Amino acid sequence: MKITETGLKGCFIIQPRLFEDDRGVFFESYQQEKFEEAIGVQVNFVQDNISVSKKGVLRGLHLQTGIHAQAKLVQVVHGEVLDVIVDLRKESTTFGKHYKLKLSSANRTAIFIPKGMAHGFVTLSDEATFMYKCDAFYNSASESGVIYNDLDLNIDWQCPITTPIISEKDYQLPTFKEFFK
User: Which pTM value belongs to this model?
Assistant: First the structure.
């Protein structure tokens, strides 16, 4: 398992070691001791979530705030997405910056997103199954986020369709500046 820090402080890419033969592929998608040793933090994942999205669906940019803030370990088990993370931690040296990469069932890459970062993705394949582990339980009162098309963040989502498919709730998210008011 190869774990490397991204351009965002505390956000890590996890690339598993693959064992391939004529039967197929085997790999560890998560191993707690190796993971915690590499990132230097103990994480206790308490909830796994799965979403299935069709091509052009954009989910995000989401996070939970306060005592219900969540760190996440995300990966794609089927299909391909463009994954986007935004650092919303004012004290961070990478505050206001974003990082993106393609996650897919082909590259088998995962990414660890620490508390205080907003997260989203757009589905690039016909369908994608997205799985994520969370270190805190979901709490609807702590839901928050930033609008995906915020002008200050200027994220190129590389959306495969003209207009992304977005939930009404995500259209109501504040801008980056409004998030901090």
Answer: 0.93
